[in-house]
Amino acid sequence: PPPYAHPQKCLDVLQEGKTIGWIFTLHPGVAQAFGIEHYVGLAELNFTRLATKGLDTAKFQPLPKYPGMPFDISILVDKKTESEVFAKIIRSADPHNLLHSIELFDMYQGAGIPEDKKSLTFHLELRRADRTPTDQEFKETHNAMIEGLKKNGATIR
Asked: How far apart are CA 98 and CA 140, in angstroms?
Protein backbone atom coordinates (compact mmCIF):
# COMPACT_ATOMS: atom_id res chain seq x y z
CA PRO A 1 0.00 0.00 0.00
CA PRO A 2 1.08 3.60 -0.40
CA PRO A 3 3.02 5.08 2.55
CA TYR A 4 0.21 7.59 3.21
CA ALA A 5 -2.33 4.78 3.79
CA HIS A 6 -3.30 3.59 7.26
CA PRO A 7 -1.40 0.31 7.80
CA GLN A 8 -4.44 -1.60 9.17
CA LYS A 9 -7.22 0.09 7.20
CA CYS A 10 -6.28 -0.56 3.61
CA LEU A 11 -7.77 -2.90 1.00
CA ASP A 12 -6.12 -4.00 -2.22
CA VAL A 13 -8.18 -3.67 -5.40
CA LEU A 14 -7.41 -6.64 -7.60
CA GLN A 15 -7.93 -7.32 -11.28
CA GLU A 16 -7.25 -10.91 -12.26
CA GLY A 17 -5.12 -11.37 -9.16
CA LYS A 18 -2.97 -8.27 -9.68
CA THR A 19 -3.19 -5.14 -7.53
CA ILE A 20 -4.45 -2.16 -9.49
CA GLY A 21 -5.14 0.11 -6.54
CA TRP A 22 -6.20 0.54 -2.94
CA ILE A 23 -9.10 1.78 -0.85
CA PHE A 24 -7.85 3.10 2.46
CA THR A 25 -8.02 5.51 5.36
CA LEU A 26 -5.40 8.26 5.43
CA HIS A 27 -2.42 7.40 7.66
CA PRO A 28 -2.84 9.13 11.08
CA GLY A 29 0.66 10.62 10.84
CA VAL A 30 -0.11 12.23 7.49
CA ALA A 31 -3.45 13.53 8.77
CA GLN A 32 -1.74 15.02 11.84
CA ALA A 33 1.02 16.64 9.73
CA PHE A 34 -1.62 18.44 7.66
CA GLY A 35 -3.82 19.30 10.64
CA ILE A 36 -6.68 17.06 9.51
CA GLU A 37 -8.82 16.11 12.50
CA HIS A 38 -11.31 13.83 10.74
CA TYR A 39 -10.97 10.40 9.23
CA VAL A 40 -10.33 10.63 5.50
CA GLY A 41 -11.17 7.79 3.13
CA LEU A 42 -9.29 7.55 -0.15
CA ALA A 43 -9.16 5.36 -3.22
CA GLU A 44 -6.30 5.08 -5.64
CA LEU A 45 -6.84 3.13 -8.87
CA ASN A 46 -4.70 2.58 -11.93
CA PHE A 47 -7.30 3.46 -14.55
CA THR A 48 -4.90 2.64 -17.39
CA ARG A 49 -4.75 -0.98 -16.22
CA LEU A 50 -8.45 -0.98 -15.49
CA ALA A 51 -9.26 0.30 -18.99
CA THR A 52 -7.15 -2.37 -20.68
CA LYS A 53 -9.97 -4.79 -20.00
CA GLY A 54 -12.40 -2.48 -21.72
CA LEU A 55 -16.05 -2.17 -20.98
CA ASP A 56 -18.85 -3.86 -22.79
CA THR A 57 -20.78 -1.27 -24.68
CA ALA A 58 -24.38 -1.14 -23.62
CA LYS A 59 -26.55 -2.19 -26.51
CA PHE A 60 -30.08 -0.98 -26.96
CA GLN A 61 -32.65 -3.71 -26.82
CA PRO A 62 -36.23 -2.68 -27.43
CA LEU A 63 -38.95 -3.81 -25.09
CA PRO A 64 -40.66 -6.98 -26.26
CA LYS A 65 -43.76 -6.51 -28.39
CA TYR A 66 -45.45 -9.64 -27.09
CA PRO A 67 -46.00 -10.66 -23.47
CA GLY A 68 -44.08 -13.46 -21.88
CA MET A 69 -45.49 -16.22 -19.73
CA PRO A 70 -43.86 -16.17 -16.28
CA PHE A 71 -44.19 -19.08 -13.86
CA ASP A 72 -42.34 -20.78 -11.01
CA ILE A 73 -41.16 -24.35 -10.54
CA SER A 74 -40.39 -25.60 -7.02
CA ILE A 75 -38.51 -28.85 -6.57
CA LEU A 76 -37.11 -30.98 -3.78
CA VAL A 77 -33.62 -32.32 -4.53
CA ASP A 78 -30.60 -33.93 -2.93
CA LYS A 79 -28.88 -31.39 -0.71
CA LYS A 80 -25.44 -32.06 -2.24
CA THR A 81 -26.45 -31.37 -5.85
CA GLU A 82 -25.79 -27.86 -7.11
CA SER A 83 -28.76 -25.83 -8.29
CA GLU A 84 -27.11 -25.19 -11.67
CA VAL A 85 -27.52 -28.88 -12.52
CA PHE A 86 -31.29 -28.44 -12.39
CA ALA A 87 -31.18 -25.11 -14.22
CA LYS A 88 -29.37 -26.91 -17.07
CA ILE A 89 -32.00 -29.65 -17.08
CA ILE A 90 -34.75 -27.02 -17.36
CA ARG A 91 -32.89 -25.24 -20.19
CA SER A 92 -32.40 -28.47 -22.14
CA ALA A 93 -36.07 -29.49 -21.81
CA ASP A 94 -37.45 -26.72 -23.99
CA PRO A 95 -39.02 -28.25 -27.12
CA HIS A 96 -40.16 -24.93 -28.60
CA ASN A 97 -37.09 -22.87 -27.62
CA LEU A 98 -39.26 -20.50 -25.59
CA LEU A 99 -37.18 -20.10 -22.42
CA HIS A 100 -36.32 -16.42 -22.20
CA SER A 101 -35.03 -16.35 -18.63
CA ILE A 102 -34.45 -18.58 -15.63
CA GLU A 103 -33.58 -17.42 -12.13
CA LEU A 104 -33.08 -19.37 -8.93
CA PHE A 105 -34.86 -17.16 -6.42
CA ASP A 106 -35.29 -19.42 -3.40
CA MET A 107 -33.29 -22.20 -1.78
CA TYR A 108 -34.55 -23.59 1.51
CA GLN A 109 -33.36 -26.18 3.99
CA GLY A 110 -34.99 -26.56 7.36
CA ALA A 111 -38.37 -27.25 8.93
CA GLY A 112 -40.59 -29.34 6.68
CA ILE A 113 -37.72 -30.43 4.40
CA PRO A 114 -35.93 -33.79 4.92
CA GLU A 115 -32.41 -33.37 6.31
CA ASP A 116 -30.75 -34.75 3.17
CA LYS A 117 -32.82 -32.55 0.82
CA LYS A 118 -33.22 -28.90 -0.16
CA SER A 119 -36.01 -27.02 -1.84
CA LEU A 120 -35.23 -24.94 -4.94
CA THR A 121 -37.62 -22.54 -6.64
CA PHE A 122 -36.89 -21.22 -10.12
CA HIS A 123 -38.66 -18.31 -11.74
CA LEU A 124 -38.96 -18.81 -15.50
CA GLU A 125 -40.31 -16.79 -18.37
CA LEU A 126 -41.30 -18.21 -21.72
CA ARG A 127 -41.38 -15.77 -24.63
CA ARG A 128 -41.36 -15.58 -28.40
CA ALA A 129 -40.16 -12.60 -30.41
CA ASP A 130 -42.75 -12.96 -33.17
CA ARG A 131 -45.93 -13.65 -31.17
CA THR A 132 -47.31 -14.67 -27.82
CA PRO A 133 -46.66 -18.37 -27.07
CA THR A 134 -49.78 -20.50 -27.37
CA ASP A 135 -51.29 -22.38 -24.45
CA GLN A 136 -50.30 -25.61 -26.16
CA GLU A 137 -46.65 -24.49 -26.50
CA PHE A 138 -46.67 -23.47 -22.85
CA LYS A 139 -48.13 -26.81 -21.71
CA GLU A 140 -45.71 -28.85 -23.80
CA THR A 141 -42.71 -26.85 -22.62
CA HIS A 142 -43.83 -26.91 -18.97
CA ASN A 143 -44.48 -30.67 -19.09
CA ALA A 144 -41.12 -31.35 -20.76
CA MET A 145 -39.35 -29.38 -18.03
CA ILE A 146 -41.24 -31.20 -15.27
CA GLU A 147 -40.50 -34.61 -16.83
CA GLY A 148 -36.82 -33.73 -17.27
CA LEU A 149 -36.56 -32.74 -13.63
CA LYS A 150 -38.34 -35.88 -12.43
CA LYS A 151 -36.09 -38.11 -14.55
CA ASN A 152 -33.09 -36.53 -12.85
CA GLY A 153 -34.22 -37.13 -9.28
CA ALA A 154 -36.21 -33.99 -8.50
CA THR A 155 -39.56 -34.13 -6.74
CA ILE A 156 -42.00 -31.44 -7.85
CA ARG A 157 -43.43 -29.46 -4.93
From this structure: 11
Query: Which H or E run includes 11?
Result: strand 5-15
CB-based contacts of 140, cutoff 8 Å, min separation 6: 95, 96
Q: pLDDT tens track of the chain, all 157 residues?
A: 889 999 899 999 988 888 999 999 999 999 999 999 999 999 999 988 887 776 667 788 888 999 999 999 999 999 999 999 999 999 999 999 999 999 999 999 999 999 999 999 999 999 999 999 999 999 999 999 999 999 999 999 9
What is this structure's pTM?
0.62
Number of neighbouring beta carbons within 10 Å of residue 95: 11
How distant, in Å, are the alpha carbons of 7, 20, 27 from that of 1? 8, 11, 11
Question: Who's near 94: CB < 8 A, 6+ residues apart?
Answer: 141, 144, 145
